[in-house]
Design a protein that fits this description.
heterodimer; A: about 240 residues; alpha/beta; 6-stranded mixed β-sheet; 7 helices; globular; B: mainly alpha; two-stranded antiparallel sheet; 8 helices
Chain lengths: ~240, ~250
Amino acid sequence: MIAVEDVSFAYGRTEAPVLDGFSASFAAGAVTAVTGGNGCGKTTLAKLIVGIERPLTGRVLVDGADIRPLSLAEIGRLVGCVYQNPTHQLFCTSVREEMAYGLRNLGLAEPEIAERTGHYLRYFDLLAHLEDFPPALSHGEKQRLMLAVVLSMRPGCVVLDEPTTGLDVVRRRALGAYLREVADDGVGVIVVSHERSFVARYADAEVRMADRRRAGSEDGPGPAAQRAAAGARGRG
Amino acid sequence: MMDLARFDPRPKMLLVLCISTLAVVWHDPVWLAGLLGSTVLVLMLGRVDPRSAARQVRGVLAAIAVLFIVQCVFVRSGDPLLSAGGVTLVTVDGVSVALGVSLRLLIVVCSALILLTGEARDYLLALVQCKVPYELAFMVMTAVHFLPILRGEAMDVYHAVQMRGTEIAKAGLGDKLRVYTRITLPIVAGAIKRAEQVSIAMEARAFRATPRRTFMRRLRLAPRDVASLIAVPLLAAAALAASLAA
């Protein structure tokens, strides 16, 4: 389980805070959607959860432990992350090598690496691309490869930033089904998305973020009052 | 005080060209230190935000430190400065060369900050008015525009590598170099792809459809710009002559 407690964050000392006293929790074994308008801080929240950015105040807890003293490599073993553009996460010369990179860093033996590689590539329908150059794959294939890479490291939670961008209806459904299966296996899935239909169909819970451009105006809460609104949702 | 942002781009480009030329020509760390000091003085007098400048310079300090160590270790000529068990580790020449290379890189970075006081479109206009072919000027400006994007992508990959279990901070020099090599792969692949996309977009918007391109605005030199255009090369020539005579 991941908990974000009273977190504030700004990109520069003189910049307005993107998050101000924000709190939310994300259950294990469930798909939780993080929603909100453009620029409300969804991606920043994702970066804070995976440790790429560090909160100015407040803390992020993974299974009850504060991630502040952990290195990115240590956080990566607990929380996996798939960027909005997975191209920036693929840095090996073949799909096979891409899969093995993180598993070798975990200290696994070669037979175990081969077994996990085969299992996850089969699961994500990528076995035929084993020797392909990752940047040459299609967007959907890159996304599935990154999911395979991240899940093969068996983290307790996975964060996906706008995973439906550029996917057609068929691929979107397939992705949703993959995420449901992953959650049913006990992994916490956090999906950052502003696509209402995807969220309504596949998320168990929703963390709605306030639009900070409207903060302080008549029809929006002030930054200090920004809070997550989490509520249960059916799977549809 | 002189606000660099109010200067025409041409004297600024000439100033950076002169500073960079001197940095390449000079090898003596003392002259290079003097040049670095002068460049910093120009930045201070030119009202460049010191915090922003410090941030930019801090970004290359790690690279400069690596360069310094590599030069110290691999330059074997000169009197020994540091030895262990009869083996010379660092020589006087090694430290001198390392200092020179490090200062040179710092000078290039600091002089580039002078260019950051202007708008990209003004530099494009300035290059065209200096009779540089528009296509070439546009290419240079496009490349400059993409640098922050490339930097952002490099940071994404850098984070991705770490999130897959690589402890870069604890890695040895060899492992660090291997990681940086990995980071270049998606960056280069992305840059090639983006170059293709930009060229298609430019063709689609009739780039080079007419042989002569006109501009709504023209840059005009103020007296201070003219004075700078004369003074900067004279000062650079005088400094070069003094260093050769010394």
